[in-house]
Every structure is written in C-alpha cells, then in structure tokens.
Amino acid sequence: VPQVQPRAEELSELYRELSQHPGLSTACLGPDLTTQYGGKYCSLYTEWSQRDLARAENIKFCRQYLIFHDGASIVYSGPAGTCSEIKDELLSRESPSGMLKAVLRKVPGKEKEKEKQFLEVWDQNRKVKSIDLTALDKHGSVYDDDQFGCLAWSHSETHLLYVAEKKRPKAESFFQSKAPELGTSDEDTGHPKKEDAPIKGEQFVYHEDWGETLSTRSVPVLCVLDIEGNSISVLEGIPEHLSPGQAFWSPEDTGVVFVGWWHDPFRLGLRHCTNRRSALFYVDLTGGRCELLSEDTRAVWSPRLSPDGCRIVYLENNVLGPHQQCSQLRMYDWYTKHTSTVLEAVPRQAWGAFPGIYCGALPGMCWAADSRRILLDTAQRSQQDVFVVDTATGTTTSLTADSPQGSWSVLTIDRDLLVARFSTPSCPPMLKVAVLPAAGHEAQTQWICLQDAPTVPGISWGIRTLQPPPEQEHPQYGGLDFDAILMRPSEGPAGQKPPLVVMPHGGPHSVFTAGWMLYPAALCRVGFAVLLVNYRGSLGFGQDSVASLPGNVGTQDVHDVQLCVERVLQEEMLDASRVALVGGSHGGFLACHLIGQFPDTYRACVVRNPVVNIASMVATTDIPDWCLTETGLPYKPDALPDPAQWTEMLHKSPIRYVDRVRAPVLLMLGEDDRRVPPKQGLEYYRALKARGVPTRLLWYPGNNHALAGVEAEADGFMNLALWLLKHLQ
User: Fold this and answer.
1) Active site residue 577
2) d(Cα 514, Cα 72) in Å, to the nearest integer?
3) CA nearest 515: which of 382, 614, 638, 416?
4) For 283-292, 383-392, 587-596, 675-684, which range has the lowest pLDDT when averaged over its residues?
5) Alpha helix positions (H), 96-205
6) What CATH number does residue 664 fall under?
7) SS3 assignment, position 657
8) Quick one: average pLDDT of 5-9?
C-alpha cells in the first residue's frame, strides 16, 4: 500500500513554512497629496498578522505603500520601505483629515501593578498626547473587540469616542478592618467619600457576560475624551436595558449613534450571533435624550455613515432563529428620518444575480465618494466576491466577476480608491487596489496587485456542485443543491491514489469559501486530498438553504456530506479504503455522526470542540437558543426543560450512534470554550473508552472554541496529521 509517512520533523518544517504566510487584516488610505508636477498620490497603511512559533504568539506588523493616481486609474503603485512589528496597540484610528492618529495602547504594569491602558494622539511626526486611562479611573478596561468596540474621531477632530466596561464600585469583606486611606475622606464629615467607600457584601456577586470570546464584557458604556481638556466623560442617557457598542459621531457632532443590544432577561452569547435583539439609537450630547432610529424588534449591526453625513446604512436580521442568515441592507436618512430597505434577503442564489448578504460586518469604510454607492463582500456559494450597491436603486454589480475565482474581501474604500484582499486555497492573501469606476461602469474595475503572495506548489483545487437524491429533498425547500471544494496533491508518485480527508464546516450556518486555509493546505502538501463540504444550510446559497437545516441536523447535513464523499470517491482517483474525517464544532458534530452512521466508510477521525449531545449542551453553553433552534424547537428564555424536547435533542445527537463507532478518534478540547464546553468532548471520550474504541484527548488550557492560540493551533496540526498518517496506513 502506498504510504504517506513523512517524519514528525518534516511535518513540523512544512507547518513552520506554511504558517509563516501572513494574513492581511486592515488597510487605511492617507490624504491625497500633489507632486510639484501636478500628479496626485497617497499613502496606504496596511496591517498584517503572522504566527511567530518561536514566541508562541500572533504578531502584528505594518507596511506602507504609495499609490499615484489620476482619479480615474492608478498610474503607479509600490511599497514604501519594509515592514515593522507593531507592539501593544489594541486599537488605532486615523482622523478624518488624515493629519492625526489615535492609538489605544496596553502598557505592562511596573512590579506588581496591573496592566495599564493609554490613549495616545499622534500628529504627523510626534506623539502629542498620552493619557493614562487606568489612572483616571472613570471606567474599566476599554473594549478592543469588533463586537462592541470602536475608536471614533469627532468630525471636528477635538474628541474621541470609545466603549469601555462600566466602573464597578469597590467591594470588600464584611470583616475588613483597616483605617480609611488618607485623602479620601469628605472634608465636612471626615467619613470616606461615598463613591470611594467599598461596599460590603458585593465581593462575590456574579456579573453576567456576553459569552464566548467576550467573557470580560459585561456592562459597556460609551466614553468621550476631550483631547484639548484631557478630560473623560461617560455618556448619560443610555437606557439601562441596553448594552451600547459600534458607536460613531452623528453629523455636526451633536451626539452619538450606536447599536444597543437588549440584555434582559439575561445575556446570551453574542460572538457570530447576528440574531440578537438590537437596534440603532441616537443619544444627544447636550440633553442626554436617547432616540430609537430603527425598528426595535429586529437584530441590527454595522452602521456606516455616508461621507456627506446624510445617510446611515446597516445590516438587519430576524431575531432568534439561525445565528447567521441572509441579511437585509437597510438605510436611514438622517434628515428625513425615513428608513428604506436597499436589499432584501435572497431566497435562492442564481449566477448573474446578487447572491444575498452573508457577512459578519460591512467594511469600516464602505461608502463611495458619491455618498450613493457602497461596497461589500459576500459569499456567493463557495467563493467570496466584491459587489457595489447603488443605495438609491438597489442595483448591484460584481467587481470581481471577471477576476480569478477565490475569496475577495473589501478592506477599505476612500475617495473611490478601493483596497481589497484576495486569496485561494493554494495562494495566501495578497493585496489588491483599484479605482472605483463611475456609476454604471463598475464592471470595468481594473485590479492591480500591490503585494503578491507566492502560490504554494503541489495543490490543485476545484469546486463541484451536488444535487441530493429525490428521497433526501427537503419537503418545503425542494430543488436545493450544495457545493464542495476538493483540494488534491498535484504532485506525487504516478498512479498512486491519495487518501481523502473530509472536512465539513462548523456553524452550521457558515461556509467554506475558496480562500487560503492553513490546515487544508498543509494536509494537501502532506499528501492528502481534502474535501471541504458546504452542505445544505451553508451561507451563500440563499435564505431557503439556511432555513432548510434547523430541525434536520444529524440527518440532512450528514446525508449531504456522505453523498459528497461517495460521489467524489466514484469520480476521482482517490483511495476509498483510506478516508478520514476532521471537523470542529458543528463540523465535529457531523464527523461524530458520520463515523457512527457510516462506520464502513471512515478509518480515522479528528474532532475539535465537537457538539456531541445537544441535550446536555443546552444547560451549559452560552447559546442555549442554538440547541433548540437547530433541533427544530422554539426558543423562549423562560421555558423550562421538557422531557419531550430533551428526547428530540438526544435523538439528533451523535452520541446516539456511539455503539457503532470503530474508527479511532482524536479529540481536541479548549479548556475555556464557552460555546461548546469541553464537557461535550469528555462525554464522547468516556463513551468511546467504555466501548474499547482507540481514542486520545488533547486538552488546551487558555484556549476557547476556536483553538486559535498559536501553540494550540500548531500542536493541533501536528497531532492531527500524525493521527491520520498512523491510522490511514
């Protein structure tokens, strides 16, 4: 039997090489400057991230470029200098004029002091302000996440707006005995000042948080720094039942526009959940009056103000139901107070038509200079494309239809200079720039590559479409098809059939787009073919596909993956006797189902934080609504456990098929996972051990659901690859 058996040293060298390809995270265009000959140019600042295996951390670095343009096309572009590492920057934002930059920085505390946060203001050539937020003690730590966090300049460039944790009163034991500290007593009474006096009995009060990756976020407040006066104020007037975030200054700086999330009766996990009740609000800075700008029974996020200050676009979903859906694009007119729907949800994807919006957020800068068109990227089946949307007419045009197939993302657009990222399964991220053509001519967009990335040799890939057989059609949503991306080694001994690794995605309402993915690329280079399955329920295929899966998990998605595997084994030169499964989260749920329902197909299995038993997960996860929704049951916050519902959840769970499992299973669990708590994986581990199935468990402290820590990710790949090589011999 041909064997795929590189030694561990070769594997680690391969991983080291591929993991060094940097990811492109942000881009910012500087102001237009004019040369002495009348030509226009501007600088482009980019931030990249890269794994540093020696330091076991993700590092950030920046690189600058120059772009010479005549307003209609790019005349010349190229790098300006080399890259340099960015240390301890949590947030940064250039001012509207491009003349100033604000930076939120963390600074290690001296000796036993805790870490501090500083807000800095830089001009073109120096740091002009450095404000110790920790010492001012107006609030807790500043939010640097992309869920609530923001760092927004006022239009006048005199104030900065950000989100921080609300200051908690000091708490102490009932038995604390110490003299009041000097300088804290009230001049009139000699007693400690009321706001500084610690409260007894509050020491161990539980504070709800926002779940996975947001466990330090509980009560966000909006804060304003007056740059000239060096003073910070916490905004008043935001209703108690709301948690504010994603804020920016209103036109004329009269107040602040923000997204408010309801947190009554209790907080549910928010990460990757664009179905939480929320609305758009305006709070007036002078009177503290708070005004609702959108409907208050929906889920909204990503508000973006047009350059002329007249319109706000934002994304909107239904509340509850699938965590990710096909979203509506809505627009609020600041002066007429009228809200319109620019784009509706799309029931079915069709080539040549707009596929619908399936994105976690709009680009931070998404408006064209005409304040009429916006740019966005979205999944279109198994690829990701860039579209321009005319907000007045709702017409859409693809800017990447005639470009290479893969995964395109908008990084920024400013004065109609467009910056994007592009990658494919065999090509790491590269930086592309273009000038947005005039309205009506957008299809003529000319992309220029500003930072190339070397194509990784030895990987070929393609997308295939599959139609479920008639007996597996959805009764309500018939005629749905789905995709898979097949990557295979393009080099190898002639006539040798490579083994197959099957990878269904998590979610379940997410999607594999044809972009750069480290694990699949590395497995392909080891000698495995990799099948990435976008079963029915995936994003990018229309809302009908999303709606077809809840109530059918464990059957429809499982059958789609199995159909895909059987079809690929029939049609491709692959070794049907050496097939393995790899999956995380809902992908792990499917992998555990498949080795139980189709034990003859699979020889090995690797799962990362898998859902194993929906019935036992519902009481421990940060998203109990997911457990009910995907089982096909209604979610109500006040509903009590019901035996019939638990039976249904158990019935749809892979633990039900554990008696039939024969394939050796490797489990990887994140100790801090709040989404699918590690007790799920432990439950499966014990069930397998009790049945004599070969199993191994890796436990990663300090890692949550994504297992994205540099050390856990690297160790996870090595163990995964060695497990597959061992059991697919």
Assistant:
1) no
2) 30
3) 382
4) 283-292
5) 133-136
6) 3.40.50.1820
7) helix
8) 73
**Which pLDDT value is given to residue 30?**
95
CA distance 286 to 471: 64
pLDDT tens digits, 241-252: 999 999 999 999
* Nearby residues of 10 by Cβ (< 8 Å), 6 or more positions away: none
Asked whether residue 260 is assigned to any structural domain, the reply reads no
Looking at the 3D structure of the chain, how many domains does it have? 1
Residue 626 belongs to a domain = yes
Contacts 24+ apart (CB under 8 A), 94-101: 94/28, 94/30, 94/45, 95/153, 95/157, 96/153, 96/155, 96/157, 97/31, 97/157, 98/30, 98/31, 99/31, 99/123, 99/124, 99/157, 100/128, 100/153, 100/157
Domain that holds residue 486: 459-728
CA distance 664 to 605: 6
DSSP secondary structure letter of residue 138: S
Please tell me which residue in 95, 263, 673, 727 is annotated as part of the active site: 673
Nearest to 251 by CA among 96, 110, 378, 363: 96
Query: Given CA atoms 67, 71, 74, 76 in this order, what sign does their dihedral have?
Result: negative
The pLDDT value given to residue 195: 58
Return the HEC string of 503-544. Answer: EECCCCCCCCCCCCCHHHHHHHHHCCEEEEEECCCCCCCCHH
What confidence score (pLDDT) does residue 641 get? 83
CA proximity to 727, closest of 596, 581, 578, 539: 578
The beta strands (E) that lie in 576-633 are given as 579-584, 604-608
Vertex 611 angle, CA 683 and 625, to 5°: 120
Q: How far apart are CA 703 and CA 707, in angstroms?
A: 5
Buried/exposed code over 276-289 (b: 16+ C-beta within 10 A; e: otherwise)? bbbbbbbbebeeee
Residue 181: pLDDT band (50, 70, 90) is: low
Name the token pair of 335.
């002066």
Predicted confidence (pLDDT) per residue in 466-478, tens digit: 999 999 999 999 9
Residues 551/631, Cβ–Cβ less than 8 Å: yes
Beta-bridged to residue 721, according to DSSP, are none
Phi–psi pair at 469, nearest 5 degrees: -65, 160
* Residue 550, token pair as written in the block: 């809840």
Alpha helices in 356-511 (DSSP H): none
Sort residue 416 into left (φ over 0), alpha (ψ -120 to 50) or beta.
left
Does residue 685 register a pLDDT over 50?
A: yes
Write down the catalytic residue from 139, 586, 705, 727: 705
Q: How much is the pLDDT for 194?
A: 55
Give the Å distances, CA to CA, from 674 to 213, 214, 359: 8, 10, 23
What is the DSSP annotation of 80-103?
Answer: -S--EEE-SEEEEEE-TTSS-EEE
| Euclidean distance between CA atoms 370 and 387, whole angstroms | 16
Question: How much is the pLDDT for 186?
Answer: 52
- Whether 527 maps to a domain, the answer reads yes
Q: From CA 322, how far away is CA 549, in angstroms rounded? A: 9
d(CA 314, CA 306): 11
Q: Which of 403, 585, 616, 653 is catalytic?
A: 585
Of 23, 56, 6, the residue nearest 522 (C-alpha): 6
Query: Is the CB of residue 396 less than 8 Å from the CB of residue 388?
Result: yes
> What are the tens digits of pLDDT across the range 187-241?
554 454 555 788 998 999 999 999 999 999 999 999 999 999 999 999 999 999 9
Can you tell me the distance from the alpha carbon of 370 to that of 372, in angstroms, rounded to the nearest whole number? 5
Q: Are 453 and 428 in contact (CB under 8 A)?
A: yes
Q: What is the pLDDT of residue 2?
A: 39
Quick check: is 705 catalytic?
yes
Q: Is 441 a catalytic residue?
A: no
> Is residue 175 one of the residues assigned to a domain?
no
